[in-house]
Amino acid sequence: MAIDYNKRRPSAPQEPPAAPTAPPAGGGGVSLSKVTLTKASPSISLTKQGGARGQLRVNLQWSTGAAPQKKGLFGRLAGGGGGIDLDLACLWEFTDGTKGVVQALGNAFQAPYQGAPIIRLDGDDRSGSAAGGENMFIDLSRTAEIRRILVFTFIYEGTPNWASADGVVTLYPAQGPEIEVRLDESDPGSPTCVIALLENRGGELIVNREVRYIRGGQADVDRAYGWGMEWARGRK
C-alpha cells in the first residue's frame, strides 16, 4: 500500500469544606488532573499551566477491532472491513525554517533527523492492542526552537469508521493537567484526522484542538495547513 510520505483528603473535624477550585484557564474540562479540549473550549496554554518544560508525551489509544482483512488505503476506501491500524504522526516546523514529518512511514521516527531529537516517535502499534498505545515525545526544553507542530493520525489499515476506532489522544506534560482530545466526530470518507496544533506564540506554547478530517494523506494535510513541503510515495 502506498501513501504519502515525507485521588481526596478528609477535612479536619468541624472545619468547613474548602471552596471549589476553578478549572484551569483556557481548558475545556473541570478536572484539575485532566483538561478535555472541546469545540467550545479548544485551546490551552502549556506555558500558563507550567507545562511548557521537560518532556511532553503525546499518547494515542484506540479500539482494536477485528483482525485486518484488507490492507492499504485503496482496500479500505473500497469498503474493506477488519481491524484498525491508526498511525500517530506530526508535521513540524522549527524557528530556523526547517520542516518535515515524524511518522512510522519511511522510518521518519524523529526530528531533527540527526543529533538529539526535539520530537521522536517510540514505535508503531499495528493493532491498538499495545497497553501503551503509540507515543510521541516532544522536548519542551527546546520550545524556543519550535514554531509549530501539527499532530495527526491516519487509518493505515482497516475500516474508515472513526466511531468504531474510538480514538483518543492525551498529552502528558511534565507539570500541569493532562490534556485530552477525543476523536468524537466521524467522516467515513476520510482516512486522516488532524488532532491538535501546538504553536509557539511569542514564547508561549499553545495547544489547539483541531479534530479536522482530511480526505487524503499527508500531502493533503500539508495543503490544508500551508506547510509547503514536497511529497513522495512511501511504505512501512
Short note summarizing the structure:
By secondary structure, the protein is mostly beta strands. It has one domain: sav2460 like domains (Lipoxygenase-1). 7% of the residues lie in helices and 36% in strands.
Overview of the molecule:
This protein has a 7-stranded mixed beta sheet, with no helix packed on it. By secondary structure, the protein is mostly beta strands. It has helices spanning 73-77, 162-165, 218-225; strands spanning 3-4, 34-36, 43-45, 55-61, 85-94, 99-102, 110-111, 119-121, 134-139, 146-157, 168-172, 178-182, 192-201, 204-214, 233-234. The protein contains 3 helices and 15 strands. It has one domain (34-226): sav2460 like domains (Lipoxygenase-1), CATH 2.60.60.30. Strand 11 and strand 12 form a beta hairpin.
List keywords for this structure.
236 residues; seven-stranded mixed sheet; six-stranded antiparallel sheet; 15 strands; globular; disordered N terminus
Protein structure class: mainly beta
Q: State the CATH architecture.
A: Sandwich
Low-confidence stretches: 1-31, 66-81
- How far apart, in Å, are the first and last alpha carbons? 9 Å
Remind me, CATH topology?
Lipoxygenase-1
Q: How many strands, what sense, and barrel or not for the largest sheet?
A: 7 strands, mixed
Number of strands: 15
Draw up the topology in text.
Layout: E1 3-4, E2 34-36, E3 43-45, E4 55-61, H1 73-77, E5 85-94, E6 99-102, E7 110-111, E8 119-121, E9 134-139, E10 146-157, H2 162-165, E11 168-172, E12 178-182, E13 192-201, E14 204-214, H3 218-225, E15 233-234
Parallel strand pairs: 2-12
Antiparallel strand pairs: 1-15, 3-14, 4-9, 4-11, 5-6, 5-10, 7-8, 8-9, 10-13, 11-12, 13-14
